[in-house]
Amino acid sequence: MTDLAHIRNFSIVAHIDHGKSTLADRLIQSTNTVSQREMKEQLLDSMDIERERGITIKAQTVRINYVAENGEEYVLNLIDTPGHVDFAYEVSRSMRAVEGSLLVVDSTQGVEAQTLANVYHAIDADHEIVPVLNKIDLPASDCDRVAEQIEDVIGIDASGAIRVSAKTGEGIRETLEAIVRSLPAPKGTRDAPLKAMLVDSWYDSYLGVIVLVRIMDGVLKKGDRIRMMQNGSVHHVDRIGVFRPAMTVIDELGPGEIGFLTASIKQVRDTRVGDTITHEKHGVEKALPGFKPSQPVVFCGLFPVDSAEFEDLRDAIEKLALNDASFSYEMETSAALGFGFRCGFLGLLHLEVIRDRIEREYDIELITTAPSVVYHIHMRDGAVTDLHNPADMPDLTHVDHLEEPRIKATILVPDEYLGDVLKLCQDRRGIQLDLTYAGSRAMVVYDLPLNEVVFDFYDRLKSVTKGYASFDYHLTEYREDNLVKMSILVNDEPVDALSMMVHRDRAETRGRAMVEKLKDLIPRHMFKIPIQAAIGGKVIARETLSAMRKDVTAKCYGGDASRKRKLLDKQKAGKKKMRQFGKVDIPQEAFISALKMDG
Amino acid sequence: MAEDWAEGGFGLYVHWPYCAAKCPYCDFNSHVARFIDHPRWRRAYAAELARSASETPGRVLHSIFFGGGTPSLMEPETVAGIIAAARRLWPVANDMEITLEANPGSVEADRFAAFRAAGVTRISMGVQALNDTDLRRLGRIHTVAEARGAFDIARDTFERVSFDLIYARQDQTLDQWRAELNEALAMSVDHLSLYQLTVEDGTAFGDRYALGKLRGMPNEDLSADMYAMTQDICGTAGMPAYEVSNHAVPGAESRHNLIYWRYGDYVGIGPGAHGRITLGGQRYATECPKAPIQWLDAVDRGSGELPRQALDSAEQAQEFVMMGLRVRQGIDPARFQRIAGTPLPPDRIAELVDMGMLYRDQNRVCATPQGFMVLNAVVAALLT
Questions:
Q1: How far out from the chain centre does Cα A596 lie?
Q2: B202 CB contacts (<8 Å, ≥6 apart)?
Q3: Which 3 state secondary structure label does DSSP give A500?
């Protein structure tokens, strides 16, 4: 156990690609926490998806031993947090477990929207913040300008900002010294009753649930009987350790320390993140404040392409949910797509990550339906219900009004793209709240409906700004608006998986775009196919897919029989990937592509 | 009861793999070689004929077809040897049809008499186009004048003459094709194969198409209009389509190709040749190695065939429908049920009849003119 004065707990705040993982790698490497042989890129990102996309999804922890210039040895605990808005809840709770943050800013780029969002989490958590200007090895690096920007935009002193190249290793030593010098040591009392914060938990197939804890007061030892204060459940601690970053078993954890415990807990759901852990006997009376539980905000249907794989999908979803309490699911039946699941996510990236993991790790091809947000339906009798799926929209005669979630979005963008960004936000029913400048970059703040953002807003933003804009948001409130359910009819049959909630004023435009897209996405059939968008019984847009006129093999003789038969088998396999509506085959990509808007 | 193949008849296909030049649209098994060991080829064909006949003794042979490649480049002696051997090895029908594909050049025309003497009764000429510019674009080495000359000689030499034209070519208009087709019909031909240009993978055209460099190909509407017009003109001229792309004056249909479409048995010998042979109640798909030298070597080792594939009832049923619906007479649902073990799905038939793609004619199910235009989709709807 280390005395409090020689412990520093910190996290790293950064925008994506500003070099957070590389800096973490360097800190770990320069202190010989892992051998050179074990060193690899993005050491703390263990999931394939994290490495591939260059993002961190789950918070990771590493304990670093560092001998400072004053000759004393310190224990540095780094909690590496995700940078993306979808995982903001992970960020905010990880921050509660540490006392300080490194604010990493790319010195060739400057402050971005995610930098802002995350640094505010750090400020909220009363962190001491050490600014770090990264990528100083690049010719475009401009430390003075970026330091000035940090002071202007964030409002913290950046005069002592450390200049670092995580790539070459320059400034790493200075960073470690700054952690020791500038960040406060944790507080806590060894003799007090045990008070530990449950920071995170995940399932390991060998050890059961692994619980990441931060000890506030007291000492946690192997063999202790602990109580989860939320539900009173008692567990026997069978293992205690720290991450270096591999799991290393130790005897005890004292105040200020961060480590893990295992206690033969079967389900992640039994360990409530933010809960307080104490001893069964002589425990503390008062729990820590805890965290706000994360709520799914985006819902979509996941269906297996091959309906025979439904049970496999159930299995995959259950396993993923074991490790991700923020992901919710329930069974759904669609006339179009058969059996599947309606799943709730923290945001679009979360959705994509889960979908990718099901397809990759479980090898199940999926049809993903249009993402939708949760609406509040106010019924005439005063009842309020949540609407997760447009298909469940009740009869309008019973509905008084609907409310939709709104967000506050912050966008940082170079001057020359500002006009396009404002137009995009305006087109998506946005209300401008603020517009300020920091150098040649504009910061715009918009009040936007989440349902306009959920689908392709980020893609559009990237495309109109050539990738130079950064974007972050948080939910603000539910607000009443004129929302209607738009149905899509293909060959006069409603396709439930394509129905969506839209604002009445935008219904014609959306409907027109949808039917035009579908006309391109559905292959020609032997007969003509009307494609319509409708609100209630009223058709608001219509296209007709004309019948195919010619599709016949010119030559087919004895030598062609086998080849043509194989072609037919291929067609058969292709048809499996389509969904049949009455007589019409709709390719699976239509369910998602139809919703992408060009404007 | 007779075996299923008997409903389609029994034929012999002989593949000659060499051409003087490779055409850019052609995906057939053809090769260009400087030296050809003709005696070795004669010995190989003879050996393969003997091997095939020993498996199918006593079957009445209805047709022999020399395809390629360019079989008109075979030495007449080789053709004569094959025909004589076939006649010796199998009982033959009195009206056995013996077809040879010919390039319409002057060199080949000089050999027509010799082919006639060898026993060839029918010539199928790859004329392809009746204007020189398009012939060059199709990579053909003959001219229209040569083709007409060769055709006249063929007409005088053989009982039956057919030729091929390729239409829906690059930059071809409806009017141009109408004029060309009328010219062709004026040539007192008894059989015409009229193919829309198809861009196949693995050909020079396919490569160019993939690069976006094959310009002027007709869109679906124009190609549909051209097909419909072709049916009209040929029907009026007394040469209705008896198959998707084949037209004949009544009685002049290619008996050999009808064996394929009626799902009969056929022996296929020569490089890359395919066959369908029913032995002991089991229908097999046969195939030979494609490369000429590999085939010759395989024959030397005892068999010019690759391992056979036994076709299960579902595969046979697919082939039966796929081939059978191509001809005007369509298919016999009772025969389908005998092959497949299950009936043609009545609901799908009814749906396709409602749509105007199929019609029932006494005991047969046939494609309508509209159905022929989208036959791939019709077959897929029936079978998938």
A1: 20
A2: B27
A3: strand
Within 10 Å of residue A79's Cβ, how many Cβ atoms?
A: 27
Domains of chain B as residue ranges with CATH: 4-259 (3.20.20.70), 313-384 (1.10.10.920)
Written as six digits, the tokens of A91 are: 């960020």
ipTM tops the 0.95 cut: no
| Residue in B54, B38, B60, B49 with CA at minimum distance from that of residue B14 | B49
| Backbone angle region of A478, left / alpha / beta, with phi > 0 → left and psi within -120 to 50 → alpha | beta
Give which of A557, A565, A569, A577 to mutate to test B binding, by max B Cβ within 10 Å. Answer: A557
pTM of model > 0.90: no
Alpha-carbon distance of A7 to B89, in angstroms, equals: 98
pLDDT (0 to 100) of residue B26: 83
DSSP conformation class of B263: T
Q: Give the SS3 label for residue A139.
A: coil
Are B245 and A555 a contacting pair at CB < 8 A? yes
Residue B79 touches partner A, C-beta closer than 8 Å:
no
Burial class (CB in 10 A: 0-12, 13-18, 19+), A286: exposed
Q: Sign of the C-alpha dihedral, residues A120, A125, A130, A134?
A: negative
Question: Could you read off the pLDDT of A412-458 as tens digits, one per residue?
Answer: 888 889 999 999 999 999 999 999 987 778 889 999 999 888 867 87
Amino acid type, A39: M
Handedness of CA B33, B37, B42, B47 (dihedral sign): negative
The string of pLDDT tens digits covering residues B40-63 is 999 999 999 999 999 999 999 999
Q: How far apart are CA B77 and CA B118, in angstroms?
A: 8
Sign of the torsion angle spanned by Cα atoms A279, A283, A284, A285: positive
Of B259, B275, B355, the CB nearest to A527: B355
Backbone angles phi, psi at A365, to 5 degrees: -80, 135
Contacts of A580 in chain B (CB under 8 A): none
The answer to whether the beta carbons of residues B119 and B143 sit under 8 Å apart is: no
Specify the pairing of strand A225-228 against strand A239-243.
Answer: unpaired
Q: Which residues, other chains included, contact A206 with Cβ-Cβ below 8 Å and sequence gap of 6+?
A: none
Is residue A527 within 8 A of residue B355, CB to CB? The reply is yes
Q: Which has the closest alpha carbon to A279: A221, A240, A199, A225?
A: A225
